[in-house]
Amino acid sequence: MRHTKFALAAVAAAAAAVIAGCGGGSGPRAGDQTPKVKYSAQIVFGDSLSDIGTYAVGTVKALGGGKFTINGNNTSVNEALTGLTWTELLANQVGLGTQCPYMTGLEGDATKGFNVPVATNTSCNNYAQGGARVTNPVGPGNKATGSALGALTVPVAKQISNHLAKVGGKFKGDELVLVMAGGNDILEGLDELSKNATAAGTAAGAQTFATSLVGQLAAGAPNPQTAAQSIGLAVASEAARPGHTDTSVVQAAVTAAVMAGNTSAGSPAVYGPMVAKAQADATAAGTKAGADYAAAHGPDLVAALGQAGAELVALVKNQLLANGAKFVVVNNMPDVASTPSGLAQDANTRTLIGAMVKAFNDQLTNGLATEANVQLVDVYFVSHDQATNPAPYGLTNVKDPACDLASPKNPLASSLTCNGGNLKAGDVSHYSYADSVHPTPFNHKLLARYVSEKMALKGWM
Fold first, then answer.
1. What is the spatial order of strands in the sheet that 41-46 belongs to?
2. Which is nearest to 128 in space by CA: 81, 150, 160, 105?
3. Is 340 in contact with 437 (CB distance < 8 Å)?
4. What are 172-222's pLDDT values in tens digits?
5. What is the pTM of this model?
6. What is the tens place of the pLDDT at every residue in 406-428?
7. Which has more pLDDT, 167 or 22?
8. Cα distance between residue 148 and residue 161, in whole Å
9. Residue 439: how many CB atoms within 10 A of its CB?
10. Torsion-angle region of residue 27: left (phi > 0), alpha (psi -120 to 50) or beta?
11. Do 65 and 71 contact (CB within 8 A), yes or no?
């Protein structure tokens, strides 16, 4: 687990944020809601946590979705079900009103309504997109991953360059700039690790199965060494044949064993237990090989997240601050290991996730904490505290999704198409998560209040 050192003032600020998050009115300037700074615009760069409708088109829109939360204004059911994200709430708080996505569209399966022409709206300043990574253009849901959705996943680096191109390369200096990213770099890294570990396990399992079965069948032949060669060749030949099955491979091995002199091997009563043992051996070998692969390559993911954090720092310094941005809020990565998705992983994977988050956040702290024009918000701290101590925040569930993610109620199994019509039974308005990783509108409200508290302490609100 990450242990962050806080100055006394930061601890006090966090405590004040908890009170604010619970609906309290105390804290700095509690009776004065006039913003200290008048912003001309709110510019948002990031991923699904800040996306306000990039994919609210085609089938996604028809299903009542578009944002990665509980979609729609369901305040008639519960006042917490606003359908608003933290960036929208913050915009309202600083007097900037309704926000809109800079880009909309999908590049997926047209037969499913997931292919909608990409459009840009130059009057909109929210560039965040679900699936976006820091610099890599291929994030979760992108067509390059094989996803039918075809999410655009324009990375933060490109989002920033799109904005600079729109405004002539410079910020005016009175914009509120919000940045939050990194989660998809973790998700894609873990997905790739899982695929490769599975492939390693499958290969090891197949090899062990063949070796075990061949050895057992050959042992009953007059010349075990010669028999093993012929049975092994038969197994390899059948396994390489297009259309082969596990049954056909076993049959090829048995036939070769009989021809090599182990005549009793032709009986299912004889070769059946051999197959069962070979399968057990294969399972054990495959499990070990997969685990060994994950353990060996987990550090690569930690390094990759450190690199992603360094890249985000460079973008903030070289593309935002260097080009005139003076009010830049950067949220670090939340406690991903404590999300429903993280909790579903084994202990080793959760430890790896924690190390990846720490590597990313450490880069932000080391690179941005002393920048006068940056407010670095420790979202990890508050999200971890919510996961371990939810009651003071008004949260009633921090482990389960509020949305019913089963088909046909939710064909995408995602908060992207979650709304008031496909929630779980009961009052889920104060759940922390809409799906396995994305916040509910209530948790978005907590985040907006936490960010605004930090801005107020800095004199930006």
1. 41-46, 175-180, 327-331, 374-377
2. 160
3. yes
4. 999 999 999 999 999 999 999 999 999 999 999 999 999 999 999 999 999
5. 0.89
6. 988 899 999 999 999 999 999 99
7. 167
8. 28
9. 28
10. left
11. yes
Q: Rounded CA gap, 133 and 193, in Å? A: 17
CA distance 429 to 441: 8
Quote the DSSP letter at residue 266.
G
d(CA 274, CA 272): 5
Beta carbons of 354 and 1 less than 8 angstroms apart: yes
Out of 7-11, 100-104, 195-199, 310-314, which region has the weakest mean confidence (pLDDT)?
Answer: 7-11
**Runs of H (alpha helix) within 137-182:** 156-166
Kindly state the average pLDDT of the residues 393-400: 98
Q: Tell me the β-bridge partners of 120.
A: 103
Whole-angstrom distance, CA of residue 21 vs CA of residue 15: 10
Phi, psi torsion values for 356, nearest 5 degrees: -65, -45
- CA 233/CA 314 separation, integer angstroms: 56
Which residue shows structure tokens 């396990």?
Answer: 201
| Beta carbons within 8 Å of 318's beta carbon, 6+ residues apart | none
